[in-house]
Each structure stands twice: as C-alpha cells, then as structure tokens.
Amino acid sequence: MTKHKSVVAVVDDDPRLLESLEELLESAGYAVRSFSSAAALTRAGLSGLDLLITDVGMPGLNGFELRDLVNQERPDLPVFLITGRHEIAEQIRARAVESFFCKPFDGQALLAAIARALTQQGRGR
User: Fold this and answer.
1) Domains and CATH numbers, the chain
2) CA-to-CA distance for 29 and 55, rounded, in angstroms?
3) For residue range 64-82, what is the model confidence (pLDDT) as tens digits?
4) What is the SS3 assignment for 77-108?
5) d(CA 86, CA 97)
6) pLDDT > 70 fraction of the chain, expressed in percent and rounded
7) Per mean pLDDT, which range of 16-30, 38-52, 101-115 is the poorest?
8) How many whole angstroms separate alpha carbon 83 and alpha carbon 17?
9) Which of 19, 69, 76, 82 is the most buried (most CB within 10 A)?
10) How many Cβ atoms are within 10 Å of 120's Cβ, its own excluded?
C-alpha cells in the first residue's frame, strides 16, 4: 500500500523562490505543484491540493484575493501567505497569524507550520 503524499501548491511570480520552495517541500516528503501566477493555479484547479502557499504581491490576483477566492471554493484548504513587503508583514504579524511568513523566512519554521496545519485538517503524515 502506498502512502499518500500531501500535495502543496506554491504560487509566486519569482521563479527562484518557486524552485527553492519546491526543493524544500520535496525534501520534506511533500508533492509540490508550482504556479507562476494565481491565474495559472485557478486554471489548473484546486482539486487534490492539501495546502496552498501564495505570495502576497503578484500581478493580476494578489495573494489576499487568491486566498479569498480559494476560501469560497475550498474553505477547508489551508492557505499560507508569504511576502517580502515588511510593512504588510508587521500588520499581519500583529494579529498573530501563524500562516503568514515574511521573506526571507526560516524553512524549518515553515515546514513545522505546514505539518501542524495538515495535522489539524486530518491530512498530515
């Protein structure tokens, strides 16, 4: 019997960050689906995803708008937001949001938060 790998989608318009996150997540045993825009993710659909990580600042749909769209279609899907804009980070961090990370972020802290979110959803390993 094969064990199901949790599927994490990553949306970011920075190809270097997509590659880095893909390597980090795969090394931790996750299956990764990478997208360079929110539109690319919405075209592919949300089926089969266990968690979404999205950049906040992207052309077209930004990360907040994508999160809201995802929450309408899949309210059970955990969404993590990442940004390099520190003024946004400070506002969100003040609300103690665990699913928000400021670039550059600690990869191990991100993996731990992902594991917690998936466990809470009953999708963890």
Assistant:
1) 7-124 (3.40.50.2300)
2) 22
3) 899 999 999 999 999 999 9
4) CCEEEEECCHHHHHHHHCCCCCCEEECCCCHH
5) 15
6) 85
7) 101-115
8) 11
9) 82
10) 10
Q: In what order do the strands lie in the sheet with 79-83?
A: 31-35, 7-11, 51-55, 79-83, 100-102
Residue holding tokens 């989608």?
A: 9
What does the block give as tokens for 20?
């880095």
Residue whose tokens read 């019997």: 1
Residue type, 94: A
Can you tell me the mean pLDDT for 94-118?
Answer: 82
